[in-house]
Design a protein that fits this description.
about 180 residues, alpha/beta, Dihydrofolate Reductase, subunit A, eight-stranded mixed β-sheet, two-stranded antiparallel sheet, 10 strands
């Protein structure tokens, strides 16, 4: 695939948070319904690369003791530290534009970003996100870690689709608008 799409595929509370201040994401469990994957299987069937921030990586590791994405994708954990790579996980502390260009220059599937907020801001600052798949969870957290942090320049995005689920989750899909 020559044009590898970078998709921000993530969930947030109705008031814009992806985690509590203490990195608690257990509120997402309320959306777990047997047999319902909210389109995740179809989405990931076109993906072979996963990008995430080190803080999000640490939260996942702390919760389950492993990083399940590494068994499915080539993973890049963006960090400011020099950390040794592990099987299918590259700890990357270089230029984000160079990384995305390197990934896109090779044949393969799409690129999946799962946050956190600092990584989303970094990708937004360099206009690297092609598609936004944001699932709105019907909860108001009131405080926590925002999906969109800090100031970033204005950009156009184009609405593509929305889907509502029995659980109350609403999934929104937007594309970057180059017009």
């Amino acid at each position: 695939m020559k044009n590898r799409i970078l998709t921000l595929y993530i969930s947030m509370s109705l008031d814009g948070f992806i985690a509590t201040k203490n990195d608690d994401i257990s509120w997402l469990d309320a959306m777990a319904l047997e047999g319902e994957d909210y389109g995740y299987g179809a989405f990931t069937s076109k993906v072979d690369t996963y990008i995430v921030g080190r803080k999000t990586y640490d939260v996942v590791m702390g919760l389950i003791g492993e990083f399940p994405q590494a068994s499915k994708f080539d993973c890049y954990v963006l960090t400011r530290q020099d950390l040794p790579d592990t099987e299918n996980i590259t700890f990357y502390n270089g230029d984000i534009i160079e990384l995305i260009e390197k990934i896109r220059s090779k044949p393969g599937g799409n690129i999946y970003c799962d946050g956190g907020g600092e990584i989303v801001k970094l990708l937004l600052d360099h206009d690297l996100i092609d598609e936004y798949m944001i699932s709105i969870i019907p909860i108001l957290l009131g405080d926590g870690k925002r999906l969109f942090v800090g100031e970033t320049s204005s950009r156009k995005i184009k609405f593509v689709d929305s889907k509502k689920y029995e659980s109350g989750l609403v999934q929104l899909k937007y594309l970057r608008d180059r017009s």
